[in-house]
TrEMBL record:
The lineage of its organism: Bacteria, Bacillati, Bacillota, Bacilli, Bacillales. The keyword Cell division does not apply. It holds the Pfam family LysR_substrate. The gene is gltC. This is HTH-type transcriptional regulator GltC. Keywords: DNA-binding, Transcription, Transcription regulation. Belongs to the LysR transcriptional regulatory family. Residues 1-58 form the HTH lysR-type domain. Gene3D superfamilies: 3.40.190.290, Winged helix-like DNA-binding domain superfamily/Winged helix DNA-binding domain.
Amino acid sequence: MELRWIEYALEVYRQGSFTRAAAQLSVAQPSLSQQVAKLERELSVVLFHRGHAAVTPTEAGRRFIEYATEMMRLRDDLAREMRERGLGMEKELVIGAPAITGGHVLPPALHAFTSQFGDVRVRFVEEATEALEEMAASGLTDLTLLSLPLRDERLTVHKVLTEALYLAVPSNKDYTERKGCGASLSEYAHIPFIMLKQGYGFRETVLAMCAEAGFQPQMAYETSSIETAQELVAHGLGVTIVPAMVRRVDSPKLLYLALDTQPTRTLVFAYRKHCYLSLAATTFLKVFEETQLTREQAT
């Protein structure tokens, strides 16, 4: 069984078509079909249903794809680790993060890392949470900043920080900031909520908080930015939940109410389980921990 046969079969699976797979691989379609047929004969199974509309894996084909994907991952990890052992740190580090959270958390560590390792190009990818999880699990990013819980079981995590969550309300409305044990979220069930759009993990966090408080929030507006959400709150259009790091503490238009349940969120760097983590990635994690400790000591 030749390695290129496996690569060809995986590409056919990814494309759902021999024609598209052949174009992607820059080989002639008849040649691709012949190579996959050779693989099937050697394995004594049919890997694909060859329909007019699409090519789909058989039951044996699905199992083959699982093993083959793992084989290719191990091959790539082996090559990557051996290159680093022979040539030193790779020259690119890809970090994924939600735009607002990444903007608050990453800059000090990025500055420290690039100051020490200027020959490593850091590429920053900003997407919604669901897209970032998939990119991390597919190996398209080396490290991805996300908040727990994660949905994808292919990921493992390195804890970054835990921070408090607050209810942001407009200061010109009749809301009373609670002292001591904090406000009860259920008291605001009748107030419209400003929510992040589908695909953002923090939206699920807020929905879970509301469910725990016994209500489903009335969604006045949905946005892709927590900054926009706060601006809408400042203009009296509803309330929202915000992490501590993004509070506009100097804004005269906003109040941030501590909640009696003392909710928090935990940020992590996520990456694929059982995969080789590059020297650049492990070094960045160390630099991040050092800069985070310095920031905590300064506050």
